[in-house]
Amino acid sequence: MSGILVTGANGFVGRALCETLVRHGHDVTALVRRGTLGMAGVREWRHDAPDFAGLLEAWPDDLTPDCVVHLAARVHVMRDESPDPGKAFHATNVEGTLRVARAAHARGVRRLVFASSIKAVGETDGGTPLAESAAPGWLDPYGRSKREAEDALWALGAQTSLEIVVVRPPLVYGPGVRANFLQMMSALWRGMPLPLGAIDARRSMVYAENLADALMRCATDARAANACFHVADTDDLSVSQLLRVLADDLAKPARLIPVPPGLLSVAGRLTGRSAQIQRLTSDLRLDTSLIREKLDWQPPFTAKEGLAKTARWYRETQATRHSHT
């Protein structure tokens, strides 16, 4: 059993991780900024300062975890309303991360696991699944902040005894998912025609419980120290395959119109959505051989199982919503 502190514990991935850790008998503390996790077997610590200011001074004297899993972040959004997104991402994802790491080291924590993102490498794979050693391509402000945080953590680890582990997931899905994945399921649920029937680009994804299991392994396995790992489901589905699987799980028709990718790209330029279209029409596959070989890790769930659980959650959410109207 290990003592593990989870930042961002009441978020989408944080809840899945805390549930996984408790199920495996670990001593879990949830660090949240607002709200509450409300999970049996989990101690809660609320620290409501922006970007983890004053974290070291507020650290409870009786809190002595072996590892901190740092999930809290300013997340990527399609329409960022900040006047300076780069500065905002840097403040939270770089400076805030360093405050957590320095406080953890000062309090005798042995290891910090940092949930980065494949966006710290880029948006496409260039024809070859991305390994951990891949050089970064074009990075948006979010991806740049994650890469800068990684570099800052490696430098801190080299100067101290704090073990650093970096985990780079792709798109994460599962019950409770939000943003684009939720919008996609909503479109399928409503029977909307989607111009994505000809998109055969393959995109790695990771089911939330698979990511939680990998994060737990990285927090507790001695072999993970000072390493970076790419984590994804075993199967890389194309966009059209993903939509058809989800539609089947939702018991809805997949109304996919086979619009050529070139026409979609033109439409993207005309509507100011080139970046979104590029993500849909470009391959982004992860090479996950390192974590499988070094840590003997395998995803506990298949993509089919994860998508089925996600669709079941969505159906139940819709049923509950309609029962209250």
TrEMBL record:
Pfam families: Epimerase
InterPro entries on file: Epimerase_deHydtase, Lipid_A_modif_metabolic_enz, NAD(P)-bd_dom_sf
Transmembrane segments: none
Domain NAD-dependent epimerase/dehydratase: start-end pairs: 4-224
CDD domains: UDP_G4E_4_SDR_e
Protein name: NAD-dependent epimerase/dehydratase family protein
